[in-house]
């Protein structure tokens, strides 16, 4: 078969990509379609989900999670609350930390840059299970963290057994409220199976320890992305700003950061996707406890499907999580979009429409 024959080029192309299409269809598309069917069925896990005994139940499993008051919705909303605070704390912190580390190891005057780059990146290549076990020892009641806090006269908590919300603790410390007797309008008002007091708890002490671990382990990977972007920056712009009298901070904020916008967008997107899917740290360190304050949608989906053997509800949680991540990613892309580029694209589209309209009008006049 000659690739120079224009008639046969499409056939050759399809022959090359057919094996990959078969593999993707078999191991990606088919499981997704199967999980989607399971989420709208009453399959018990026995036999095939496509036999006649399995019934279509519509959106009942989704309704139990979103609209039906009960334990399913309470657990789902608890997992959403926990993960919301988790994302809110982890994504900005890991982004700022990664950018800071990248700027430091990109300095030419820094000796041993290769060592520091390797050291900062090392946690990212170590198994998350191994790091989770190390953090379990560090954050025990008599662990190194509490012993370090003891040097300053601070009695550290029993981290992974403490279900208190950080906002509750801080509010109690500054006198906003009393944790033992929360305000009646907060504790007595329920929204989606949780009281306002529970919604405003903040991340629990246990979840905060997991957040610290994730920030530390993921910053190295994102540091490499920022480092690659920093080394690709045009030096002429920075030198021009220096000639104009801009100091280091002004050059960083007005020259470096705008050039890093695509990388920041990528890091934040990957951070949002990864944090909403957090699973292994929760599985190893807390098993969703204490008092479900480290329960996340991904772990709840696993627990519902394979511990409680409620496979349809587990699949429904997974698809709700997918829709949430997709919506947040699109929102984040819209907020962090390059407005100048978007404006230019709109102008180009408007120009093409005007040109088509002009050609159509000219053709009509000639025909008439």
From TrEMBL:
Where is the chain membrane-spanning? 12-38, 84-106, 118-139, 205-230, 260-279, 315-336
User: One GO cellular component from the entry?
Assistant: plasma membrane
Q: Which domain of life is it from?
A: Bacteria
- Residues forming coiled coils: none
Membrane topology per record: Multi-pass membrane protein
Q: Which UniProt keywords apply?
A: Cell membrane, Membrane, Transmembrane, Transmembrane helix, Transport
Q: Which GO terms describe its biological process?
A: transmembrane transport
Region annotation (Disordered) maps to 342-368
Query: What SUPFAM superfamilies does UniProt report for this protein, alphabetically?
Result: MetI-like
Subcellular location as annotated: Cell membrane
Would the keyword Transport turn up in this protein's UniProt record? yes
Q: Which InterPro entries match?
A: ABC_transporter_permease, MetI-like, MetI-like_sf
| Keyword Oxidoreductase listed | no
Q: Which Gene3D superfamilies match?
A: MetI-like (1.10.3720.10)
Q: Taking every annotated instance into account, which residue ranges of this chain make up the domain ABC transmembrane type-1?
A: 80-332
Q: Which family does the similarity line name?
A: Belongs to the binding-protein-dependent transport system permease family.
Identify this protein by name: N-Acetyl-D-glucosamine ABC transport system, permease protein 1
- Give the organism the record lists: Serinicoccus hydrothermalis
């Amino acid at each position: 078969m000659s690739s120079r024959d224009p008639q046969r080029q499409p056939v050759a192309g399809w022959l090359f990509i057919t094996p990959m299409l078969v593999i993707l269809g078999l191991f990606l598309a088919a499981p997704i379609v199967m999980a989607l069917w399971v989420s709208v069925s009453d399959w018990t896990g026995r036999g095939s989900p496509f036999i006649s005994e399995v019934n279509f139940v519509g959106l009942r499993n989704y309704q139990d999670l979103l609209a039906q008051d009960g334990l399913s919705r309470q657990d789902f909303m608890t997992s959403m609350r926990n993960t919301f605070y988790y994302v809110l704390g982890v994504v900005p912190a890991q982004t700022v930390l990664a950018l800071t580390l990248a700027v430091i190891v990109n300095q030419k005057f820094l000796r041993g840059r290769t060592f520091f780059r390797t050291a900062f990146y090392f946690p990212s290549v170590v198994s998350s299970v191994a790091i989770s076990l190390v953090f379990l020892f560090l954050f025990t009641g008599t662990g190194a963290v509490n012993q370090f806090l003891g040097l300053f006269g601070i009695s550290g908590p029993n981290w992974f057994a403490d279900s208190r919300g950080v906002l509750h603790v801080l509010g109690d410390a500054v006198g906003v409220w009393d944790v033992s007797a929360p305000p009646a309008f907060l504790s007595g008002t329920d929204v989606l199976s949780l009281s306002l007091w529970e919604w405003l708890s903040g991340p629990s002490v246990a979840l905060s320890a997991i957040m610290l671990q994730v920030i530390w382990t993921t910053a190295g990977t994102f540091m490499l992305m920022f480092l690659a972007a920093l080394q690709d920056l045009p030096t002429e712009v920075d030198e021009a700003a220096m000639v104009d009298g801009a100091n280091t901070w002004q050059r960083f904020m007005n020259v470096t950061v705008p050039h890093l916008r695509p990388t920041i967008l990528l890091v934040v997107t990957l951070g949002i996707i990864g944090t909403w899917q957090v699973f292994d740290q929760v599985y190893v360190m807390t098993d969703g406890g204490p008092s479900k304050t480290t329960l996340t949608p991904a772990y709840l989906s696993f627990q519902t499907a394979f511990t409680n053997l409620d496979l349809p509800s587990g699949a429904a949680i997974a698809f709700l999580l997918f829709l949430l991540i997709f919506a947040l990613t699109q929102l984040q892309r819209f907020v962090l979009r390059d407005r100048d580029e978007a404006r230019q694209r709109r102008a180009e589209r408007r120009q093409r429409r005007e040109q088509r309209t002009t050609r159509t009008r000219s053709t009509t006049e000639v025909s008439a």
